[in-house]
Amino acid sequence: MEKELKTNIGKRVNKKRVELGLSREHLADMSGITSRFLFDIEIGKKGMSIETFIKIKETLGCSADWLLDKEIEN
To answer: 74 or 1: which carries more pLDDT confidence?
Structure first.
């Protein structure tokens, strides 16, 4: 379940970032992480701290509920 959760969150982060026209580098910089770490989050390879989760969700302007939702729209 943990892998599935990381994958789903990563897909949503990527989807919202692309929708907003943000580069990975820009979102990473605004969130206080490296672009490589953001890439690993987006592909579900790594999880993140609560602090990073909050920074990313605030930067993307989305709710925690939306990022954590199991259903991924295409």
So the answer is: 1
The whole-angstrom separation of Cα 57 and Cα 46 is 16
pTM of this structure: 0.89
Residues 6-44 pLDDT 10s: 999 999 999 999 999 999 999 999 999 999 999 999 999
Residue 30: burial class (beta carbons within 10 Å; 0-12, 13-18, 19+): middle
For the segment(s) 2-65, the CATH number from 1.10.260.40, 1.25.10.10, 2.40.10.10, 3.40.1190.20 is 1.10.260.40
Cα-only R_g, the chain: 11
